[in-house]
Amino acid sequence: MAWGIYINCIIMTARILSAKPCVEEVKLELKKRCESLKARGCHPAMSVVLVGDNPASLSYIRNKKKLCEEIGAKFTLHQLLPGISPDDFLKVVQGLNNDPGTHGIIIQLPVTDHLAVLDLPQLVIPSKDIDGFHGENTRKLFEGSTDMKLLLPCTPKGVVNLLKYYGYPVEGKNIVIVGRSLIVGKPLSLLLTNLNATVTLTHSKTKDLKHFTRNADIVVAAIGKAHFLDKTFFDSAKKTVVIDVGMNSQNGKLVGDVHTQDVSEVVSAVSPVPGGVGPMTVLSLIENLITAAEKQIKG
Ligand code: GUN
What we know:
single chain, about 300 residues, six-stranded parallel beta sheet, three-stranded parallel beta sheet
């Protein structure tokens, strides 16, 4: 009896899926690929086009610049005035598209509203589209590709690589994605489907969301609401793995979509915010840059 009471008092503590060891490992490989390109006369270079001075964007850009330079690639920020006309904005992107010394380009989102008249995901040519947003690159996901060397959208690629690094296979697993954004939920649902997972794509209008999350092997939270998923969304018997894509600001602090401390009692593993999917996304971007440069010198 006393033993039974003791067992009931044990509090589970989830494994924390930090990006750090994975980033350190892949960084070494990217450094080597960058060196090899330089030895062949190609110095990989990325350009970021930013409109205005959104503090969150500037912070993300600093992380991209840091990793880019750490592996030996070049980084240039093109910071444009918030009032730039669509024509002048197009000229900047087209100039970079035509520049043989630029191998990867991203347009940092969000841009100011008046630029919405432009079809932003299609502006960077597919071969330099290291965000993986262009229709020609996303089409490969619709066609069923599982080739992780393609210019795939960075966050989905980062989520899959984080699960792989920590030894969680996705094949045959019931995976629930919470959030259907164009950058994360939708492309991730395709990538995981191609990798033979059974995917349920849920969103803010899903009825009885907990029914889905409580029955999942893996839950990916990408709904953009601070601490939205607490322990009531999980069934401890399922030993769920939780990946938190959220990047929300709460009282000046960066927090995820998952209440990590709370869910730690009932899930088997959870990725932290900060230090989880964020750095994995940056890693995917820089990996895409090197892949893009390698393909461009092959012609
Ligand atoms: N803003 C927030 N996330 C992203 C991203 O993945 N790519 C770009 N270009 N802008 C972003």
